[in-house]
Records
---
Amino acid sequence: MKVVKFGGSSVASGNQIKKITGIITSDEKRRVIVVSAPGKRSSDDVKVTDLLIQLGDSLQIGVDHEEAYRQVISRFEEIVLDLNLDESVLREVQRKIDDSIALIRSEDPTGIDALKACGEDGSALVVSAYLQTLGHEGTYVNPKEAGILVKDQPGGALVLEESFERLYKLRERQGTLVIPGFFGFTEEDQLVTFSRGGSDITGSIVAAGVKADLYENFTDVDSVFCVNPMYVENPRPLTSLTYREMRELSYAGFGVFHDEALIPAFKEKIPVCIKNTNNPTAPGTMIVAELPEREEHVVGIASDEGFLNLYVSKYLMNREIGFGRRLLQILEDEGVSFEHAPSGIDDMSVIIREHHLPKDKEEIVLQRINDELQVDMVLIERDMAMIMIVGEGMNQTIGIASSATSAFQEAGVNIEMINQGSSEVSMMFGVKSEGLGPAVQALYKVFFGEK
Amino acid sequence: MKVVKFGGSSVASGNQIKKITGIITSDEKRRVIVVSAPGKRSSDDVKVTDLLIQLGDSLQIGVDHEEAYRQVISRFEEIVLDLNLDESVLREVQRKIDDSIALIRSEDPTGIDALKACGEDGSALVVSAYLQTLGHEGTYVNPKEAGILVKDQPGGALVLEESFERLYKLRERQGTLVIPGFFGFTEEDQLVTFSRGGSDITGSIVAAGVKADLYENFTDVDSVFCVNPMYVENPRPLTSLTYREMRELSYAGFGVFHDEALIPAFKEKIPVCIKNTNNPTAPGTMIVAELPEREEHVVGIASDEGFLNLYVSKYLMNREIGFGRRLLQILEDEGVSFEHAPSGIDDMSVIIREHHLPKDKEEIVLQRINDELQVDMVLIERDMAMIMIVGEGMNQTIGIASSATSAFQEAGVNIEMINQGSSEVSMMFGVKSEGLGPAVQALYKVFFGEK
């Protein structure tokens, strides 16, 4: 049994939905389908979820919402017409939107999440109805019926363990089940959405629950690339990756997934395949628990901007037992999570994502460090970028660090930080943001360029 | 005014003392002298301090101590005879030793420190007496009289701030003052010794106190070398170094000094010169607060063995706010100080000196980490060595990391850890101990070999 998830661009129009039903019906193992809300049809289009959020905002602040409402409905109307579906499908979508609007009007706190979820829900209604017109047993299955039980954190639901056992029962059902992504229900029967991009989370949870042989994630790219195409033209595609590699790559802004979306699938060791709705015969990228040893040890280069370095120096720091712990305690007290904390003898750096230390917190943190730790100097360096090279077995391969650092030299980019030694599958470099592009390009040349 | 400190080998015999008095009288600025206890005259000789410790142990456990006593006295007797000094000098040395023995016999807790200090004290008596026979105004000055006030931690005295003001008054005195190293007095007038090697501490404190123009530290090498001569034959001498460079080099076992001995001098920005008693015209190594920019950015390679890596891995560690802090808290609770803590996404390493985590503590620490942090894996990897390359301006120089890592590759040594980014003057590499020699040799070749 395969669980198949289709992203927003794959359900953006009637034409796209014809493609995905073609994909679904071409393989009888594709028994459980998870769909996103209709996405952009072209680069200047608006996603249905964004329209719904706009509609919800308008209702809450009490301004005119007719235009947003009309746009949402017309998106679904167009799809229903393109697919020659019965107008009862559109009425059902509209009824759910209207019900959510009524909840918001009655100031029910669950109304906004209910409205935000109408995009995915509508997609599932449309796809299941269209499968039926093709003579295929397609059934809409609501997440509540499917068994996706979550903890109530509106916009940030967390799945409960018992969901997986419930989802396993979907295996007994006949035909093709179509589940809307992005939301679940609490034990009190309230609809709650996951964080943005949550259809990936639903897909991964369902794949884990039904113990799928394969979780296929259809997007609009042929495969995951070994580097961000923003920096390198036509980068090499990745045919296979391990979970650990994918997780490290995602961490540093690899962009295909939220790094946490795949966790439920990883935990159950379900193989994941990233494929392209517009080119379904391309092999895609397989992500698996283990891979046989490969010739090349570096499989990907990930990078992300928006980091800062909190630098603290104090003469004789290394004689002061507990200094590092107390510095991290101050950050923890102030709710600032950190990424890394390399330390010298009399100095320590803490690498933090810039948005985790906004200006107002920055002042408090600096004040407390000065007062409580009696440091000689504390300063914040912004505009840092992190570059990560990733690959299983890297830490046991002589010469990787040498190749990598030679690339920075080639690019004329100074390495502000190197963090290597804890992770077995990655090596991390800090640079000033302006050096990011040249450094990534040089690394690509070293590890993936023509020999 | 110069403060000059002579190490154990420089006062090991009458002949050596003739050399140092030659050095003292050749420069009238050499006004304050600090001396160690007589050291080894040849490689199989025994240091007077070790004889005194043996004598103290024998007295405490009540075994025969005549032989140890006789050996100590005969060392001083020989020196006094060689220098043709009046026998009253020997009687004074002997009286102090006898007084200390009486303290130990009466179970006075200060007796052992008083006895251990007799080596330095005897050296100062002998050197000042010999200066006088040369017609030079040499005066023995006891640390109490000099003003070295310490906190009472027998064998680990800490200097009190008021010492510096008192020491400054030594500037008013005439002639050459000879102060025994290694000990000070508490406010309750008890003699307390510094940690082993404490004559360097005395010299540095005195230099800071009198605000010397220069602190000369005479040993038995022409200069500090840029790498441990154990690994490289005839390594390049270092003519000048900054305090920060010296401190980083000492940290990783550079061996010339306790890295803390020089701190009082550093704090007062007193220039320090390392010179050779046996070759006093050699320029030595100057250590100063700041240096003009040099052509070569790496000035030294230091290394040390005996580290371990405490490795902890836990799925989703990076989502758990406070994880790193709690791990360090456990170590702090158990009194284990750590060196560095590089972290990945789901894993964290803590580098600890092996002697800081003995077997009995290891069990408790591992147990607590398992119980309190619910980790997936915790393990300890022993036999690690650290290699540090040091140089001002290194962190802003493109290509250093590349040159360094290429050396490891050349040597066929895998880099287990890289820690770069916090210190402005060093870059640290972790390797398995067996790779230490080859790696240091290859690094030397890259940074100091013929171009």
Note: The CA atoms of residues 208 and 265 of chain A lie 5 Å apart.
---
Amino acid sequence: MTDQAKAEQIVDSYLCCLSEGDLEGVVALYADDATVEDPVGSEPITGRAAIAEFYRGALAMGIKLRRSGAVRLAAGEIVFPFVCASEAMGAPMEIEIIDHFVLNAEGKVQSMRAFWSEANIRPMAAEA
Amino acid sequence: MTDQAKAEQIVDSYLCCLSEGDLEGVVALYADDATVEDPVGSEPITGRAAIAEFYRGALAMGIKLRRSGAVRLAAGEIVFPFVCASEAMGAPMEIEIIDHFVLNAEGKVQSMRAFWSEANIRPMAAEA
């Protein structure tokens, strides 16, 4: 498998596990001492236990994620654009996000940073 | 002007100047001691003179750039997806790239990192 194919597999597993509510599957992508900064500028959280807690909150919102462009891989770092849809706030909405993963030697995510702000949130026009 | 609007202005100026061959316009977006790492994993170059030299080479290839998704701004950092088209290699091709800009207090680009690899290069199907 090429490095690109491996990177796409990690990204698609991430989006799929989050969309299907598979908390263990998401956490398994991370290194034991990984950090998550979501959104960029917030205090990073560290370690699988804290990361599981973070995603438990996200999954409770019934989010659905879909990739919206190519996975870019360079020197063990991955960035990719995606859309996160949720109905948790009463009205359906979407957030346009770009995630940045730094992989460790074992191919686990050592660092995740999510780039988005309120300016990237939009109401959903219609049912998909 | 909102921070988001300022970020979009920086990004659109960058893409427009590169597409129009406006070297001075591109370099003016950068801080004096800025760094450029393109692609991620290559040796970063530092300072406006070296950056101008780098873009002079890129502009010689007659590149045309267009944004392919929303500008994500968080805590003074910007990421955005775009497509870089070129005919310099004989056959028209496109590269799917995500750039990461870190802004300084004056709103100049202090650090640029470009995420792409050969896996993101594709032949162009037809004339635009």
Note: Chain A has one domain: 3-118.
